[in-house]
Amino acid sequence: MAPTVADEVPAGRWARGVELAGRRVTRRGVRMSHTAQVSTAERRVAIPTALGAMPARQWLPPRGAGPGILLFQEIFGISPYLERRAADLARAGYVVLAPEFYWRLGAASVADGPDMLEQGLALVERLDWDAAVTDALTAHTWLRGQPHSSDAVGFVGFCFGGGLAFAAAARADVKPEALVSYYGSALPALLDLAPQVRMPSLHHFGSADSYIDAATVARIRTAVEGPDTEFYTYPGADHAFDNADFVTHHPEAATIAWALTLAFLARRLPA
User: Fold this and answer.
1) Closest CA to 164 of 268, 70, 52, 57
2) Taking the complete model, does pTM exceed 0.85, yes or no?
3) pLDDT tens digit string along 228-258?
4) Beta strand pairing call for 41-49 and 52-60
5) How many CB atoms lie within 10 A of CB 84?
6) What 8-state DSSP symbol labels residue 77?
7) What does the alpha-carbon distance between residue 168 and residue 61 come to, in Å, rounded to a whole number?
């Protein structure tokens, strides 16, 4: 199937379900293969950097080895939501590494609650962006060198992490095999890097994003478009629509987008 650029997922699909990549998508979710119920192994690891050990979490697939996914957090850090998505990717056959990008600030995540957005924004404001990109590249190199991970690695990022993954992909000497960015909040300021981000990429945006308006989404689409780019928007979905723990969660958009993500990775980074 040829890449689809700038598709809006029709709202009518929400109610009746849609066939995507051989999986039936319904309001209840994606009916996965038999591996969906298989447990994965999670462990804490430490990645050496010039300023000390960067903490990270790692999830291994059921068979114990596979291609790598470097997972980039939302502004909420390594949250229960991100842990669930990491486990989902591990069940799909990937060795998943999620660095704690707030480690230099002495934090791993923010607590769920009514002020979680304010807490996350406060951490991002204190973050050294260039240092975070360097940390991502260090984690990429570390993951490629692990015995249970192949040297084929993809980047997957959400919100803050969608932009950070894009920036790291642009700066990487060894490019990731694929990039998935969910509503990358920093992308509007990073579009000058687009010529260096020419690996296969997939972008998801909600049509009702409170932080990235339709004109900006269109500008991002124009900057990143290419023969290996897939770009989808979701009617009525806000920012962070994939996060089931946040007020803007949009279950239907999340279901469709995740099915597209797994299908994209299966093609571009087969496990």
Assistant:
1) 70
2) yes
3) 999 999 999 999 999 999 999 999 999 999 9
4) antiparallel
5) 13
6) B
7) 24
